Amino acid sequence: xxxxxxxxxxxVPTLDNNVVAFATxxxxxxxxxxxxxxxxASFLNYTIELAADIDLNNALWTPIGGxxxxxxxxxxxxxxxxxxxxxxxxxxxxxxxxxxxxxLFGWINTIxxxxxxIDGxxxxxxxxxxxxxxxxxxxxxxxxxxxxxxxxxxxxxxxNSGADGDKCGGIAxxxxxx
Length: 178
Hints:
This protein has one helix and twelve strands. The protein is mainly beta. The termini are far apart. The chain has one helix spanning 25-36, and strands at 19-22, 47-50, 54-55, 77-91, 105-108, 111-125, 129-130, 133-136, 142-145, 148-156, 168-169, 172-175. The strands form three sheets. Strands 1, 2, 3, 4, 6, 9 and 10 form a seven-stranded parallel sheet that branches. A three-stranded parallel sheet has the order 5-8-12, with no helix packed on it.
């Protein structure tokens, strides 16, 4: 049997087989905060699973993993287990291209995201903007497979000459090296 963690306070314990599962918006936010802190947890060799559909209720979401210095980066596997994240809302007003990766995940590298559905997304950024991930650092070490996006609005608008409103997509905003 797998052990499931349904609520956390920014703490993810080590479990058998390095699998951690979340079933609430609050616990998913706690996981994101663990990753995003300076010197945050990378969860290397961990699998993060969804144990239920999660409704984020259009509350502002901070992408998991960032491009700026000091931002944590998730380096494990995120398996949605064919569950749905509903009502994802991300607004990133940064015009600094080093902080502009926008989506459920911001910057990803050495990661697999799989078996995930997102329904009802509203994503706004100035560069590297996508629903699942904003910026994929290196393909083939970044994998997005069997992921589906429905009912999404993605806006990538001009911020300045560096964050000029390009590199935008429904799944990922930008993929480097592939």
